[in-house]
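Researcher: Good morning. I'm working through a list of sequences from a screen, and I'd like to move beyond sequence-only analysis. For each chain I'm collecting a predicted structure so we can compare shapes side by side. This is the next one on the list. No need for commentary yet; just the structure.
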Amino acid sequence: MLRFIHTEDHAVLIERFRKRQRGEAVSLHELFRLVRPDGSIVWIETSGVDVPWEGAPAVLSFLIDVTERRHLEENLRRTLSEREAILQSTLVGITFAVNRRHQWVNRRFADMLGYEPQELVGQLSLMHYPDEASWQRFGEEAYPLLAQGLPYHVEMPARRKDGCIIWVEIFGTAIDRADLGKGTIWTYLDITTRKQAEEDVRVALEKQTELNQLKSRFVSMTSHEFRTPLAAILSSTELLKYYEQRLAPQEKAELVDGIGQSVQRMTTMLDDILLIGRAEADRLDFAPAPLPLRAFCQSVVEELARSRRGVGQPDLRIEFSMGTPDAEPVLDEALARRILGNLLSNALKYSPEDKPVRLTVHAHAAGVRFTVADQGIGIPDSDLPHLFETFHRASNVGNISGTGLGLAIVKKAVDLHGGSITVHSELGRGTTFTVTL
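Model: Good morning. Structure tokens for this chain:
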């Protein structure tokens, strides 16, 4: 019979026969190939039982042609191998899970999360969620849908082995919706780059919106705030032009002074706009040096008084006090003057004439603290988050003139000093600004 057996199977069958002759135990089941006269291969599976034969032990063998089964098995193995290769080489992460525990993962899934495949198999999916709450929430949302035979889709953050957070797009489906215990299949797509691009676009759109609003506020401010001094200049020049001979010298001098004040007002507004522009472009000069604190504060108050007298405004109502002996903190004098001058000017502008403004100064080892408190109209809570935005003005200022630049300049100057500014306000009771430099 050996001549019908495939040559590659000779050695195995001969060794089996010899073991049996030596009385060694051998399997009664064997799989081997036969070669037909036409050269075709037949797979044979044998099974046998020990029986006596003419007084001697023998084996009764049954031979079954399993060629078709072998072909089916080979085709199945080849198909599974091909599918495994496809699943392992795909750019999409795939996992098969039972009761939320990974039973199989492809290489892409493991790489996406920074693990080796064997580190994930057998583990709960909780290990790659940002926290347990998000893992619980995912299960509560996904599995009821899967039980209805519906797919589940979500975009969410995932935690890598190194702790980094990535964004993934997840699709899930059940093997058997009637029995989720048979497992679920999940595909993961890394969308971190896409999410970052979406965030960049969102920020750009917000910035564009802010720029459009800024442009609108700028046009509104300039058209309103420049109109008054320009009108004053125009009326004064017309009076001088047409009635020069009738006007007394004192009247002429007053008209000329008025023109100068209007020009100075516009110059100040333009300086503020240019200052904001330099600050936004990070081109603001910063030259800190020791500054005699008491003399500096007094000079700011006196300068403000002169400015108000020049435009016919009431005298100052500033109560100035220093809580510590005189000191010389290291500050940029020009920027510090902007900070203190704008805060005091605003406090006076938005306060009744009979209510004083308090300026309190405390020097300390790390620098200086200015506190400016008024008893004016206050600032609505809704305006506080936007208080330091360029051209922003509180919603309750009414007809009180202003550019919306003062506090924006204050904030830029404070930031350059590495300081901080806080505000506490109550409507109808007043506002307190505290600047630490």
